[in-house]
Amino acid sequence: MIINGEGHIMGRLASVVSQKLLEGEKVVVLNAEKIMITGSKEWTYNKYKQRVDRASISNPRDMGPKYPRRPDDIFRRTVRGMLPYKKSKGREAFKGFKAFVGIPREFNEVELDQIPEAQFENIKKGIELGEISKLLGAKF
To answer: What is the Cα–Cα distance from 90 to 87, expressed in whole angstroms?
Structure first.
């Protein structure tokens, strides 16, 4: 299954993707930078900035846990959080998942799926995942 992430809500899309992965499907999400996060820009930025900064707060010498800044990696981490990743079933399911910024050449001619229950419609506040990544310092 190849999904175009543009115009989808991140949490809803991640839950659908994780269900498909647990059913044994391979899932690819394109345009990860255009996935929407609901809520105000300030709240969303503060939430992700706190996660990124957590590494230096907890132990300055150890520098962990790591939290991604790139939009495709943030989405991968969100999907991983919805899988039983510490069990072999979840780990195997996660291996069948890929996320990309933009559309790579190998997917140019492929028909992309939309997830209707995850569409960003009639919601007043929201920000793109790519914009949050740029605020966190990602270069993509």
So the answer is: 6
DSSP string, 58-79: H-TTT--S----SHHHHHHHHH
Yes or no: say if 129 and 101 are a contact pair by the CB < 8 Å rule: no
3-state DSSP call for residue 6?
coil
Q: How confident is the model at residue 132 (pLDDT cuts 50, 70, 90)?
A: very high
Q: Distance between CA 39 and CA 43 in Å, rounded?
A: 7
Q: What is the pLDDT of residues 2-50, one digit of tens each?
A: 999 998 999 999 999 999 999 999 999 999 999 999 999 999 999 989 8
Q: Where are the domains of the chain?
A: 2-136
- Class for the domain spanning 2-136: alpha beta
Residue 137: burial class (beta carbons within 10 Å; 0-12, 13-18, 19+)? exposed
Residue 131's H or E segment, with its range, is helix 129-136
pTM: 0.88
